[in-house]
Each structure stands twice: as structure tokens, then as C-alpha cells.
Fold this protein.
Amino acid sequence: MTAPATARASAKTVPVSAKRPLTTLLQAYLACARMEFRAALTYRTAYLSSFAMMLLQIWLLTVVWKALYDGRAEVDGLSLTTTTAYATLTTLQYQLVSPWRSSPIDQRVREGKVAVDLLRPVGFPGQMLSGQLGWASAAVPVLLVALPFALLIGAGQAPASTAAGLAYPVALLGALLVNQLLGLLLGMVSFWTLEVSGALMAYRFVAQFFSGALVPLWFMPGPIRVAAEWLPFQATAYTPAAVYLGQIEGPGIAVALGVQLAWIAALGALSAFVWSRARRRVMAQGG
Amino acid sequence: MRGPRVYLLLAGAAFRAEFQYRGNLFINIIGGLFYQGVGLAFIWAVLDRFGQVGGWGLGEIAFLYGIRLTAHGLWLLPGHQLIHVDEVVIEGEYDRYLVRPVAPLVQLLTRRVRLSSLGDLAGGVVLLSIASASAPVDWSPGAVGFLLLAVVGGALVEGSLQLAASALVFRMKRVSPIKFAIDMIFSDFGNYPLKIFGPVAGFGLTFVFPLAFVAYLPATVLMGREEELAVPDWLAWGAPAIGVVLMYAAYRFWERQSRHYESSGH
């Protein structure tokens, strides 16, 4: 296990002083991210099999959409290829941006490791957030390997336009941040109640459904679609995929990115507020 | 009959232990319901727009889903602890089972109960009851009896695959990825009429990975849609028996493989 060693190294590189230069702070956050990145790769079989299951999932969705279209070229103005490309893209994205294992906080509180985290001279929410991003980025290497297979099984499309191609990485980054901020907020609940597994379970499935990762928002029944548009989850899956495929275009792209930004600001502010309350409640379980 | 009595005693103790945390119990059941609900939400949302998949409407799919989910819950309630077989063997907890006068498998199954499986079961029963009323089935006493047998048979089919995969732990040490994959295939692929997957995958999901016997074959014959089957009718009607045969085979496989247990040294 390399995690403890890296933890010590990261603590050492950061001098304990009131004024820290930005680069040192960034280095510290990077160390947190690296730690979680390595932890994610420790369980190789689980890691690799999750990609086999991803390919199965893409195949399943492709077959189901084909059966649903039942020979029709278009439904509601959307072709089968657009829909299967959407399913392929959202399933790939889901490896990177998913409500599963969104935050290590509840586990660290339960195991008392949070005490060590608090002793480190960098802010706790920042440590957790960069750790979460590090964990998520562990999916990148195998995603690149799996990509050709995914396109073969599902359907691939080039970005709908140059604007779509340029906006997609921005929207994906926005999706990643919204998702991780939601995870951070939820994780901090464990400072008030230790047993969060049931609530987490419910959250994950609500988040998954309303993100549009399974059903694109355009096929959702009216009232559900309205609810999905007002919830933050659509920013985590639907927004980047719809931008890429040109279902959101022109000024719509700016609006969609603006909505993401607004969610990032709102969730960030809320996290800061919750943390200011939570830090007084920290109760370490004899770690 | 000492075996079943010991099992019931141990399972009862595990239940009482879990019921001590009432709030958690409730939230776990809700969690279990959500786990299965998201698949149903997907089907409901798309069928609202598309009407049918492979010629099956929402009522028919709900009936299929209900059978699969009930079978899943029925298996999961006694069988959930198999999910921990990796740690039990790696950390040497299995050593303790060997020195006690009860079958190790029984001790493994009763080490705890996971109450979220009650959510799966309750969700399945409710869905199946509602869907049975609207599904195009002629509810003679024989049909009701076949449905009950099919649900038990479905639970045995799913359980047999999980037990056989668990048995590999004695040689491979870490089998949870295989078991997650099995679980995913059951819970994602099991909710659709098999014919949409095409002939090759349809054959594979019947004779290689016996998913069809859990819900698709029984649901099809109950609704009188035999004409879409690629297998003879008698095989579909015999689905519950397949479950018994597979479970027996899986149990024998477990027994044989468990002789390869190597203690981690405690």
C-alpha cells in the first residue's frame, strides 16, 4: 500500500506557515489527487472488469434503442444513430463522472482517518475534492483503450460542429465539477450522521436517472423533463453529451455552460457554508 | 432434520441483530428499492414515448420485470452474504467455520443479513401483483401455481450462478468482479424480452448463461406468446425445474471446490 507513504510525503512538501505561495498549495492538492488515483488502480481486476461491464452496458443500450425505434428512421426528429451515439457517449462519460464513490469522507470519518486529514496544513474540503478528482481521473487510461471497442459496439459520431467540439471539453469539466461538489456536500453529511449508506444509495439512483445518463432529456415524459431541467444532475451527463451531438447549439451552448457555472458557484458556496458548520462537529472515532 | 433447524436458528439471530437498528433498516430497504427502481424508471420513461419494445408494452414488460425482481429478492434474502466470500476466505474467517459443527456454507450465509434485500423482495412482490392484474394472462389456478414455481425457480437459477462463481474463490481468492458482472447481467438484461438481443445472444443467454429461465420463458408462456420463442414450449414450461437442477449442480460444485481451501494462517 503506497497510500500512507504518499500521505506523509505530501504533508512534508507543504511548509506550515500562515502565508503559502499558490504553487505549494497546488502541489499539495496534486498530491492528494495522486494518492486517490493510485488507490483507484490498486484493485486491478475490479478496475478492469468495470470496463468490460461498461462495454456490455453500451451493447445493451444500443440493442434496446434499436428495438425501441423498431425500424423507424426518426422519433421526435431524432435519428437512431444520434440516440445510440448519445447512449455510447454518456456510458463512457459515466466512468469519469458518476455519483458512485463520489466522496471518501463518510469512510474517513467512520475509520477516524479524518483526524489526520484535519492535521494537514491544507483545507479539508480542498483535499477531499482534489482526491475525488484524482480518483475519477484513474478512469482515463482505460477509457482511451476501451474507446475503439465502445465505438464498434455502440455508435460514434464526430462533434456536430466546431463550436460543439470546442465546447465539449469545457462542458465535461463542468460536469465533473458539479458531480464532485454534489459528492462533497453529501459526504459532509457524515459529520452529522455516521450511517449514510442507505441515503447514498438512494441519492445515486436519483442522480443517475435525472442526469440523463440513461434516458436523454428529450425523451423524458413532460413533467419529469421539467424536474430534470431544474435539478443539478442534468449538468453532469446530459449537458456535455447534448452539446457534443449538437442537440444544444448556438447560443444554447453558452446558456448550458452558464447553467453549469451557476451550479458550480451555488454548490461551491453551499459546501463552504456546510463545512464552516461541520468543522465544529468533527468527532474522530479513535483513529 | 438438524440442518434446516440450525439454519433457521442462525438466520433468526442474524435478523434480530440487524433489527436493532430500526432507522437504518428503513433507509436500507428504501436503498434496495431505489437500486432496482432506476431500471424500471428507464423502461417506464422510454415506453411512455415509444409504446413498445420487441412487441411488448409497458404492462407486459412490468410483468416480466416483476417476476425477475421477485426472484432476485427471494434469492438475495438468504444468499446475500455470498458477496463477502472473498474477505471470508482471504482473512481466514473460513477457518472458524471449519471447526464448528455446522456446514460452512450455512455459517457463511447466516453471518449477517442484508436488509436491503427486503426492499428488492417487497418491490418485486408489489410490482408483480400490480402487473399480474393487467398482464394478458388467463389466471387459472394452474397459471398461479406455475407463476409461484417460476419465481422460486428463477431465484434458484440466479442463486446457482452466484454460488458457482463463489465456489471459485477457493482457487482464485478474489471473485467479486465476476459476481458483480453476473449480477449486472441479471438485473440489466433480464428486464427485456430476449428476442430483441438477436438469435446468437438469445441462444447464449438461454443455454450458456441461463438468464432466459428466470423470467423471460415463464412470462412468455403465461402470456401465451409462445410463437416468439426460439425454444420448444416444454422447455419454457420446465423453467422451474431447471432452477432446481442448476442449484443442485452448483451446490455440488461448491462442495468440491471447498476442498481446495487454503487457510491464510490464523
In short: The interface with chain A takes residues 21, 23-24, 26-28, 30-32, 34-35, 37-38, 41-42, 45-46, 48-50, 52-54, 116, 174, 176-178, 180-181, 184-185, 188-189, 192, 196-198, 201 of chain B (CB under 8 Å). The mean pLDDT of chain B is 90. Chain B has one domain: 2-258. Chain B has 14 helices and no strands.
